[in-house]
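thread: overnight batch results

M.L. [08:02]
morning all. the overnight job finished for the chain we discussed friday. pasting input first so we're all looking at the same thing
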Amino acid sequence: MLAAMPRLASSPASDTATRALDVAETLVQQMGFNWFSYADIAEALGIRKASLHHHFPSKADLGRALLVRYRDRFDVELKRIHALPIDAHGKLLRYVGLYEAVLRGDRLCLCGMLAAEYASLPEPMQEEIRSFFDLNRKWLASVIREGRRSLLFHTRDTPESASFTLLGALEGAMLVARPYGDVARFAESAAQVLESLKTRPGSKGSR
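M.L. [08:03]
and the structure it wrote out:
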């Protein structure tokens, strides 16, 4: 997903597959899944389409592999952030930073992009998209719960509901900020959402 994210190790034998996934990830994040073909990837890598079919017999196979890799890399990063000796707000700031890194590369979240094409995707890909969002919601809920225990967050919503709101706000803010090419717009929106978690019910500015 992200330039700042660690890449999972790959063997020399899987180098073509890894490079194909790298190219496909960029194409999806910039154009969407239904708007590129194996010919685009083959041209970018300087190989024959037959080589791609050897690793990924169908485009659906490629899409699922792409989503599995994306989720696994995101999981690694979420665990890294969770282990940092910082408070819940700091962890959410690091989480927002993952999205900012994507926008700086003129891309959108892979699963956010694919969610827009959800109805046209094969079921295995749909399942992986749901798995990605479930992973993020579970992690966000745990951090929000942590923030409530430490009296840092005061949202009336349950951690599960707040996690859904936060994830949706970030994905939406990416969509709105991208046409302007302005990461600051996204950062400002994200900051407002995080600040709302800290607002005490009944205090000025809360409703």
